[in-house]
Design brief:
This protein is mainly beta. The chain contains no helices and eleven strands. Strand 7 and strand 8 form a beta hairpin. It starts with a strand and ends with a strand. The model has no long low-confidence stretch (mean pLDDT 96).
């Protein structure tokens, strides 16, 4: 059974940093694109960051560019989201996602392009 398990969320103050981790099990995602999305109360799930299978390409939502960094550790079957200079508007449940197609060289940015999802981790940023 494939599982994506996020961790690292929490309550922080504006300006602080957090690093989210997403550990995959049940299959390797070494050759698969992965991404992070978030969903705030009353809002749709939105793209935050994505990375191609090799890690050679990344993309970010405009709202997080320059503050968030996505990375992939294939040996650990884990994807990370380093979040710096957090703002109250970053408050949301953050979800990890993985594509089932191998060798996707582009960054996937929409919900429908991903096949596997984690259960989410809450990030709350106080002002």
């Amino acid at each position: 059974q494939v599982q994506l398990v996020e961790s690292g969320g929490g309550l922080v103050q504006a300006g602080d940093s957090l690093r989210l981790s997403c550990a995959a099990s049940g299959r390797t995602f070494r050759w698969n694109a992965m991404g992070w999305f978030r969903q705030a109360p009353g809002k749709e799930r939105e793209f935050v960051a994505g990375i191609s299978w090799s890690g050679g390409s990344t993309d970010y939502a405009d709202s997080v560019k320059g503050r968030f960094t996505i990375s992939k550790d294939n040996a650990r079957n884990t994807v990370y989201l380093q979040m710096n200079s957090l703002k109250p508007e970053d408050t949301a449940v953050y979800y990890c996602a993985a594509d089932s197609t191998m060798y996707t060289t582009v960054v996937l940015t929409t919900v429908n392009e991903y096949d596997y999802w984690g259960q989410g981790t809450q990030v709350t940023v106080s002002s």
